[in-house]
Amino acid sequence: MVIQVAKQQGYTIVLWSWHQDTRDWASPGVSAIVNKVLKNARNGDIVLFHDKVDGKSQTITALKTILPKLKEQGYRFVTVSELLAVKAREAAKDDNSSS
């Protein structure tokens, strides 16, 4: 219902990539968070992290490893708006090439 109303109002619904839920809220350990992200990284991913967890967050420590490793692999980080713009350009290019 909420999604339908939001779409009717012209909003774009953005969720995370289904394979990139780090479950960091459950404090699985820094290495588990790091491995989950690095093992599943794909172009265009939106990775789900939580900035508030009970106890000491492992997310910040994990990000100190994740971000440099992804940069080494050639990934770059963009805003959601930038990502949506890239996706729109790719879709338009695909539409033009199949015509």
Can you characterise this structure?
With 99 residues, the protein is an all-alpha fold. It has a single domain, classed as TIM Barrel, CATH 3.20.20. Helices cover 51% and strands 0% of the residues. The protein contains 4 helices and no strands. The longest helix is centred in the C-terminal third of the chain and has 18 residues, at 80-97. The protein starts with a helix and ends with a helix. The mean pLDDT is 90.
Question: Quick summary of this structure?
Answer:
With 99 residues, the chain is mainly α. It has helices at residues 2-8, 30-40, 59-72, 80-97.
Q: Report, as a whole number of angstroms, the end-to-end distance.
A: 36 Å
* Name of the CATH homologous superfamily: Glycoside hydrolase/deacetylase
Dominant shape: flat
Which regions have little confidence, pLDDT < 50, spanning 5+ residues?
none
The radius of gyration is 16 Å
Describe the main β-sheet briefly. none
Number of strands: 0
Beta-strand percent range? under 5%
Into which percent range does the helicity of residues fall?
40-55%
CATH class, named: Alpha Beta
Keywords: Hydrolase, Metal-binding
GO cellular component, one term: membrane
GO molecular function: chitin deacetylase activity; metal ion binding
Domain NodB homology: 1-78
How do the helices and strands line up, and which of them pair or pack?
Blueprint: H1 2-8, H2 30-40, H3 59-72, H4 80-97
Helix pairs in contact: 2-3
